[in-house]
Specification:
3 domains; six-stranded parallel sheet; 15 strands; Rossmann fold; globular; homotetramer; Dihydrodipicolinate Reductase, domain 2; eight-stranded mixed sheet; alpha/beta
């Protein structure tokens, strides 16, 4: 498990997404730190860089990448700026995490692909983050077991509360359904061969001239039919659902339940088999919370008083088990140190 | 957000739990690393320490804590060894994360409490990790809003597939229900005043002479009645459920669904309001996966081919939206670089 | 399937429950009709009897039972009047459906039992109607298969929106938990041997001096432990839930889902295997609605226009299937006869 | 509530569906009886008629309708025979319940419509029984409140375990999707204007040359887009689901849950407000079971012993409530009369 030193990352783009990635790398990611922040707006770059000790601010991606302490690049600038940033990273053979879209159109994406091909090895990971969602990962994993048989259809629902100002009908395809397009390819392992967009009567809550909702049908080279309801002014919440229909059963995620499968006369989900599975995240969160508080010079979480009080209740419980009947719990007086503020 | 340097942790106990915490700190926790591993078994300490670069191995907790590069201690040794380790940490005023139980009985817990009180400030966080479980945290958070009114009852189910060899009737209280005892105190903010343990006819699957299941009733100083079904040979899975019954509604976790509440004529759950909420974990996991792969010198995840292929599908989609009807997708030939192995 | 003639029923008690049973027999039950209505309040008896053609009104149960056209008796008078009505029915050897409670206390119930024993055969069905609830029936049926193993515990929740005026603490036992007492005996096939009633802090919404909620623990002669939460001022709805915990799994009803079982690492429910199962009730309801409308001289439900319109859509569908692409549906003009009013 | 005498029904068609309707009218429908059974196969007509007291058998529908004791007709013969039966009923102005399809094609359906129009009043109810399913009725009822706003899309799933021998690709439209066509028109109150049938790669479990599954898109004159997955060899069960997507929320049925709605940040369902709602069916079933047993000369269901035993438990419960602690239940000896066989 001997690991490399900490990965030093240049973040290109200090807008909402870029700033959030800076926070993420500092607070949630182990083994990485932000060493440089780049933005065409120098003030914005400085403001975000200032939040991280030892982090420098830049306006030119290539200059930032030339810094001695940059091992990798995270591109979160607007789509039209991606191509230049990617080529700059290729020039230094730096690994890149590039937010979606890779580039704004297929022609520029082809140019990037040709550049990477000439480099001779992959350097880019594109930010299709749904592939890292726990529910989608379970769905993919289940499909790969072959239990359900070959996938025949995939039904998707993608709903947002309300579209931001300036949102257009095309953006429902390019910024929203784009996720289902990648999910389709990834889940099914098939390429998409045709698209049909149907237009329901628009919702009264859609902005003027915006076709919302849309109902999109995708066909794949494996013969699957995929439908996507995209509805970005649904009003009630952000909801992403997917149901794969296979030859012997179905699996569905996103319903406010764990993954639900139907097969052999039953619907339902799985139950964890032990606590390391059920509470894996809780253990991670516990130790992270402890490390974070300790580094801030604080002590939080369950106290010695909690440990003591529970020990006293256990003793009463064991006596009740042995002797039967109700056993009262006797507690010492709680020291002021353990007062909850 | 300027943060302190990395927290250097001595892990006391290199058994299953200790080794898992070492792995956790190295792989999942940001801002911390393991600098020392302690175990009475020198070979075991060395084996675990060897997995971490620069980590030393020890057999004596106090000696390990004396090392220059120890900022904090994680105690994961057997319960009877906790008291000595905690006092050693107090001697150096080091912060401690101590696995549950704090100590094996109330008397020794009182001694630890007195020692921390004399230190004058809290140094210990006890490892009641359910307080860090996402579902319990939501339940606690909902209760604190007061929407449901005052809690009156708390129903708990705690089921394990099978008990390990050597498990006794008392261990159902001390090792299993102990979690619900802490959860009760934490969720309700009340101390437990009495315990009654009822004995259903034991399951045929329980080991000889083990009273399994048990049905435990707790009373609190706030007048709440709490019941706990503990069933450690249920056979079907590891399942932890809790339902709080309040004056105006109930909330339940652990059912294979998100938290379900009942209130004002409806049952159900909440829907995320935006993608940063719904996909927060996916973003963390994506960037972590990228950082991990990059440090290993690899490139994984969605490729430039994926970015290109989706761009081509989007273009077809926008044409279908504009013109109506079915639009075929034209893809370039995929370079061998992007072959999926 | 040659059946006996219609059963002629005397309904004793014309209050809310009795009147509802009169309506039920007339509208929902096949093969029975109400021939006599009895109430100590002559006006009330007459008013309810007047709703049924040929039905007579009485103030004395025995006199009503003496009428030539009475085959059976339904007792829905207040509990203290049950004993006399039952003995009158025994005198004429008439079958009786007696609303719960059989009688108000164990001593009077014993007297009724002795009278029926002397009659030499059973004549009485007691109105524990939960045994006829579809969900409880499924639960009972599943238990009887033995798939889950022996039942060890039964958890019950019984919640009402608000208690009626005059409701007392004792009525939570006698009028509410009484159902779970019967359910326990019926589901488990065991007698109850001990009762413990625990008193949580009363809800602020409970009437003055009423202990609500209560938490009741029952023990059975088969060694099962049964708990019942009774909460008659829960505010949010009427909710009845039951979970049986067996040696190899659990089954739960009343959650707004079909029966959910846990077993062998999975939670979930069953899926119907054919349409006669899934839509059995719909067929019954359809034919009943048609018979009812026809007897009123009306025609309701799907019309010839509906049949025609669907036929036209089918033709378009079959053409699309054969030829591919979108096929428009051509409909004739709809005659005024089929205008929806 | 004074009702007409019993409706006397001639059932035309004594095959599987017809025989089931005969059973239904006799056993489950109140206020109706079968007076005549018609089938081209005289033996089959006789066999089914023999199950009902006083019921006659016929081979000619018109002859059967001419009988003195026929008030109404239920047509359950094969589709091609419907037109003649309907016209015979029109000749005598008899009300008809006609199984779907009304007739096998649009042209013949138009002829029937013209005949009924000339009659001057509606006489036919077509057997689209989904309109009588409890879940669909709730969905329709919710839509009619307007709470969710205008419907924009309707997603349907229709799955059968396996198709019968001889099933063709066209029958997926004519015999299966036909239900969703009617449901669409009824739920939305709109006519269907176009149909597109898409062909996923057929399942390996579909019979040779049968296109299964199919994905059907319907467009309506109200601008709604409706999709139907029809999959008649899904293997796992018979499943019918529908989700309506409206301007302010969605509602879904058929998931093994009660109707689930999403609206204003929440998903979930309603909770009954009182026992007459929750247990309405149980009461109907209880009284029907009692009437049926009584007419057979039997006594079933909860006995006087059950009434007595519960009374004794209640007494113990009330004592525990008053005095605290555990109270044992004393039962008399159970007379042999109440032994469960």
């Amino acid at each position: 498990m001997a690991r490399l030193e900490t990965l030093k990352v240049a973040v290109v783009g200090a807008g909402k997404m870029g700033a959030d990635h800076v926070r993420r790398i500092e607070e949630a990611v182990s083994g990485a730190r932000v060493s440089a922040v780049v933005d065409v707006d120098a003030e914005r770059a400085k403001a975000v860089a200032a939040r991280v000790e030892g982090c420098t601010a830049h306006t030119d991606p290539a200059a930032a990448m030339a810094a001695a302490d940059v091992d990798a690049v995270l591109v979160a600038s607007p789509g039209p700026a991606h191509e230049a940033a990617l080529l700059a990273a290729f020039a230094r053979d730096l690994p890149v995490l590039c937010e979606k879209p890779l580039t704004p159109d297929a022609a520029s994406a082809l140019r990037v692909m040709e550049a990477e091909r000439q480099l001779g090895h992959r350097r880019v990971q594109v930010g299709f983050m749904r592939r890292y969602d726990a529910e989608y990962m379970k769905l993919k994993s289940l499909l790969s077991t072959g239990q359900l048989g070959r996938p025949l259809m995939l039904h998707n629902r993608h709903r947002n509360v309300a579209s931001p100002p300036g949102w257009t009908s095309e953006m429902l395809i390019n910024d929203s359904v784009v996720h289902e397009m990648d999910v389709t390819r990834w889940l099914l392992g098939q390429e998409i061969t045709a698209v049909t967009v149907l237009r329901p009567a628009p919702s009264a809550n859609a902005p003027q001239a915006v076709q919302d909702p849309q109902f999109v049908v995708l066909e794949t080279d494996g013969g699957a039919i995929v439908d996507v309801e995209i509805f970005v002014n649904c009003g009630f919440g952000y909801q992403v659902q997917a149901e794969v229909v296979c030859e012997r059963g179905t699996a569905r995620i996103g319903d406010g339940q764990a993954m639900v499968t139907t097969m052999a006369g039953r619907w339902g989900g799985t139950i964890a088999q032990d606590f390391t599975d059920r509470f894996a995240d809780a253990y991670d969160r516990e130790v992270q919370a402890w490390a974070d508080a300790t580094r801030r010079g604080q002590v939080t979480g369950p106290s010695v008083w909690d440990g003591y009080a529970v020990a006293a209740v256990c003793e009463a419980g064991v006596r009740s088990l042995a002797e039967g009947g109700r056993v009262e719990v006797e507690l010492a007086r709680r020291p002021a140190l353990y007062d909850v503020s």
